[in-house]
Design goal:
Blueprint lengths: L4 E5 L3 H13 L3 E5 L2 H10 L4 E5 L1 E2 L2 E2 L1 H8 L7 E5 L4 H9 L4 E4 L4 H13 L3 H5 L12 H13 L6 E4 L6 H11 L7 E5 L8 H6 L16 H4 L4 E5 L6 H13 L1 E2 L8 E2 L3 E6 L3 H7 L4 H7 L2 E4 L10 H13 L8 E2 L1 H8 L6 H15 L4 E2 L1 H4 L3 H11 L3 H7 L12 H19 L4 H8 L3 H10 L7
Parallel strand pairs: 1-2, 1-3, 3-6, 6-7, 8-13, 8-14, 9-10, 10-13, 15-16
Antiparallel strand pairs: 4-5, 11-12
Helix pairs in contact: 14-16, 20-21, 21-22
């Protein structure tokens, strides 16, 4: 079996010799270059599996090689060697596409871990195992772009900040990045930072030694150690207190942790993914989130679109969710009426896919026959009103009977304005159904109980 071939670029003889000896002991062949010019020549002459480059070279900056390799038809992983504490350069390199970084003085254990992870990304099964389509559903443009980014980002070690609204699928995206990466065989550890009691946070993240505090009866492994070799996903990272943000930053920069009560640091090999529905940049400006940690976890920003940004995916999502909810009875799953589907397509979904699941689960408990109707969805009243105005009248009828004035604050509060509209629609529904309340409720897609409640609240319940 052919040995991997690695290009080492560094002008310090001691570093070159250390790297070359270490890689040769790992059964890896090497080629060495002391300048960017000679590295470019070697890249043209041979096919490499990995490039390790120092940042400061006699004829330029290692970032030039990062850019060059990203432009190659078949880019290879490139890792940069930085001076101790020079994180700005390392972050910039990863933003440009570098696989990872290692600081001087070089830690040989960390180096071997980096090399093994980088070489795994080039294995054929990794390159071809990109079946995200059947997990992250949707053929909208935004979802196709997300799946493409996931496949690309899985080949890197760079920290990723996953932004998006609650319920949009941020943890699912994180899991897919892990599953597509060279770390897939190792643990994926997810934690909601807002769910950890403040006094236990440091122990949860870094572990503790027996007797380090009251109640510490045994040694405990932290999240970083549990995720060793794999991926650590910090959901709602904005909820971390400032005191822990400092320690998290150090752990990420040094790639080492210190358990509570221990006097030594432990090297860790994890990839960090983080997410929150809050605006981290605004929190940085307000001083509630450290700017240096923000830049460290936000090397790459991946935004997950809200459901209202991809309503064309609703039919596929609905079908998938109904099959999942019905389990072994999926063959008898109901269909959605056109009225119900249009109403969902016009709904804002503040809770995104998670809310869609809740709506459909509730509808399965209410529907009759083999169709889910608008009334079974139990959507908010404003959606029912909007659907009634737009869809139960022709354009001419709507122009004759429905006026949509712009809200004028001088005419009263917004609540009163909306109440007048609701009262008008309920009255029209009653008139059109000859004051048959059951029929009027059905026309508006409301349960009879909800309809009666609204009539009473608007002083319309005395009409008959």
């Amino acid at each position: 079996m052919k040995k991997p071939l690695v290009l080492i670029v560094d002008d310090e003889p001691d570093i070159l010799e250390l790297l070359e000896i270490t890689l040769n002991r790992m059964e890896i062949d090497t080629r060495c270059a002391k300048t960017i010019g000679s590295a470019k020549t070697l890249l043209q002459e041979e096919t490499f599996d990995l490039c390790l480059t120092d940042m400061k070279l006699p004829d330029g900056n290692g970032l030039e090689l990062v850019d060059l390799i990203q432009e190659m038809p078949m880019p290879i992983p490139i890792a940069v060697i930085t001076a101790h504490g020079n994180m700005d350069t390392a972050i910039l390199a990863m933003k440009k596409g570098a696989f990872d970084f290692i600081s001087k003085p070089v830690d040989l254990l960390a180096l071997r871990q980096l090399i093994n992870s980088a070489l795994k990304t080039a294995e054929p099964n990794m390159a071809n195992d990109r079946r995200t389509r059947n997990i992250l559903l949707g053929d909208s443009i935004v979802m196709r772009e997300i799946r493409g980014k996931i496949n690309k980002l899985a080949l890197s070690q760079a920290p990723i900040y996953i932004s998006g609204e609650s319920g949009s699928g941020k943890e699912l995206v994180a899991k897919l990045i892990h599953r597509q990466s060279a770390r897939a065989a190792n643990p994926f550890i997810a934690i909601n930072c807002g769910a950890i009691p403040l006094e236990l946070m440091e122990s949860e993240f870094f572990g503790h030694k027996k007797g380090s505090f009251t109640g510490a009866s045994v040694d405990k492994q932290g999240l970083f150690q549990a995720a060793e070799g794999g991926t650590l996903f910090l959901d709602e990272v904005a909820d971390l207190p400032l005191s822990l943000q400092v320690k998290l930053l150090r752990a990420l920069q040094e790639k080492k942790i210190r358990p509570v009560g221990d006097n030594r640091e432990i090297p860790v090999d994890i990839r960090l993914l983080s997410a929150t529905h809050q605006n981290l940049s605004e929190m940085v400006a307000a001083g509630s989130f450290r700017q240096d940690l923000y830049y460290r976890i936000n090397v790459i920003d991946l935004h997950v679109p809200s459901l209202r940004e991809r309503t064309e995916d609703l039919p596929e999502l609905i079908d998938h969710i109904l099959v999942k909810l019905m389990g072994t009875n999926a063959s008898g799953k109901p269909i959605l009426s056109n009225t119900a589907l249009v109403a969902l397509q016009r709904y804002d979904f503040p809770g995104n896919v998670r809310e869609l699941e809740n709506i459909l689960e509730r509808a399965l408990a209410l529907y009759e026959g083999n169709r889910i109707e608008l009334k079974d969805l139990n959507l908010p009243m404003n959606i029912a009103m909007h659907y009634y105005i737009i869809n139960t009248k022709s354009a001419n009828q709507q122009a004759d009977r429905v006026s949509s004035p712009v809200f004028d604050p001088s005419e009263g509060s917004l609540e009163n304005y909306l109440e007048r509209i609701e009262k008008d629609i309920l009255t029209r529904a009653l008139e059109e159904n000859k004051w048959n309340k059951t029929a009027a409720a059905k026309q508006l897609g409301l349960s009879f109980r909800s309809f009666r409640y609204r009539l009473k609240r608007l002083n319309l319940d005395g009409k008959d």
